[in-house]
Design brief:
This protein is mainly beta. The protein has 2 domains: about 190 residues, no CATH class; about 190 residues, Porin (Beta Barrel), CATH 2.40.160. Helices cover about 10% and strands about 55% of the residues. The chain contains 3 helices and 22 strands. The strands form 3 sheets. Strands 1, 2, 3, 4, 5, 6, 7, 8, 9, 10 and 13 form an 11-stranded antiparallel sheet that branches. An 8-stranded antiparallel β-barrel has the order 14-15-16-17-18-20-21-22. Strands 11-12 form a two-stranded antiparallel sheet. The longest helix has 16 residues. The protein is elongated, with a radius of gyration of 29 Å. It starts with a helix and ends with a strand.
């Protein structure tokens, strides 16, 4: 019999193979340098850093073509509602954790910038070296960077990197042209949500229209897919079922089914509600033999459970990185197609074996879990604490190793 540790290693290796090198062509378009729009499919990879090259094909069965920022003006991906613009710009690049820099350095960058707002004042974001950089384009066509300074600072006790919100000085210049924005620059953090809010309020104040905002979803974004996994189950007996031997049993089972998830409005992929329905067959056996001078006991117990498990959870997923970690918590319940325990026992040291059959009920409990997402593939570990009220078991727990693959949806 294959050991549980071997199955876990095989499962993790399967996750690794399924996660990398995936194509993910989604409906969209490109706008060429001469202004022509070509409908087709973009290979959307949820880029950690702003892409410097994309794959596009006009027909789903066609061979993909490669495009760089100097080749096209824009490309658009329909499902996540994301627009990207080819740019060549100077960025004030901040020192990284392992960098030898002691302050920001100007670097020329060719990349596709993520368009957050198109309007009287437009807003773009470039992810470079795993960090966000924001560019503002005003109505006269001038482009300015919102600079976050990072410098090496020394004190009597330590030397460390410190951030300075230099970008707020530029926001104050715009704030001074609109009385409704007074004090808003000081409240604006260096993140999508705050900067988008400032730019849309500025546009509303100066022109009466906020512009077109991308990536802030007004409706939940749903996706669905398949689930395959393996569970290690531990069940603890109730003392009233003495024929099944007090104590606990441990056994493994497969999991197979599907899931549906919905990213919450304006969550940008961070928060989501998820539901999964799984088929869980549990087949376990144990034997007990007990001999003393004046007593004899022997039993063979078989457990058969065919469960339809339904779980609901609330989940947080990182929005940055090719490998995107997540964690979640929720509740689980199961409906049994069949749930019985059969005990064949002999207590008199003869061939007079007897049989008892006990009927079981479904599972109820709560769950905690976490994992990582790469493109359409997800690998996760889930722990479930289970309660078996009015059944043969007092309680139990399961350790689940699960692989999910998104078949359809907007992320």
């Amino acid at each position: 019999m294959i050991k549980t540790t071997h199955l876990i290693k095989l499962f993790l290796f399967h996750c690794y193979l399924c996660s990398f090198g995936q194509e993910n062509f989604i409906s969209g378009y490109i706008v060429k340098a001469e202004g022509d729009t070509v409908l087709g499919y973009v290979d959307y990879q949820q880029w950690v850093n702003s892409p410097v090259e994309i794959a596009f094909k006009a027909n789903i069965n066609a061979k993909p073509e490669k495009f760089k920022p100097e080749d096209i003006k824009y490309f658009y991906v329909k499902a996540p509602n994301e627009l990207y613009m080819g740019v060549k710009t100077q960025l004030s690049v901040r020192p990284g954790k392992s960098s030898s820099q002691i302050s920001n350095e100007n670097k020329l960058v060719f990349a596709f910038a993520h368009v957050l707002i198109i309007g009287p004042m437009s807003l773009y974001r470039i992810n470079y070296q795993d960090s966000p950089y924001y560019l503002i384009e005003t109505a006269d066509g001038s482009v300015k960077e919102l600079i976050l300074l990072r410098r090496l600072v020394s004190t009597d006790h330590a030397t460390f990197m410190k951030d300075f919100a230099a970008y707020k000085n530029l926001l104050k210049e715009f704030e001074n042209t609109c009385n409704k924005l007074k004090g808003q620059s000081d409240k604006t953090g260096f993140n999508d949500r705050d900067i988008i809010r400032f730019v849309t309020e500025y546009n509303n104040c100066t022109t009466g229209r906020q512009g077109q905002v991308f990536r802030l979803n007004k409706k939940p974004i749903t996706r669905w897919g398949a689930v395959l996994g393996y569970a290690v189950n531990q069940y603890n007996f109730s003392s009233q079922y003495s024929y099944l031997d007090n104590g606990h049993i441990i056994g493994g089972s497969i999991l197979a089914g599907g899931f549906i998830a919905a990213y919450l409005p304006r969550g940008r992929g961070r928060w989501s509600a998820s539901f999964d329905v799984l088929y869980k067959p549990v087949r376990m056996k144990n034997e007990t033999r007990f001999y003393e001078v004046f007593s004899y006991y022997e039993s063979q117990n078989s457990f058969y459970f065919d469960l339809l498990k339904i779980s609901a959870s609330f989940r947080h997923t990182s929005t940055y990185g090719k490998v995107r970690p997540y964690f979640y918590a929720g509740a689980t319940a199961s409906l049994p197609f069949r749930a019985e325990a059969r005990s064949v026992y002999n207590r008199v040291s003869t061939n007079d074996y007897q049989t008892k059959v006990f009927e079981g009920k479904g599972e109820l409990g709560y769950l905690l879990g976490g994992g990582f997402k790469i493109n359409k593939a997800e690998c996760e570990f889930r722990w479930e604490r289970l309660d078996y009220q009015r059944t043969m078991f007092i309680n139990g727990q399961t350790f689940n190793f699960i692989f999910k693959y998104t078949l359809s949806g907007k992320r």
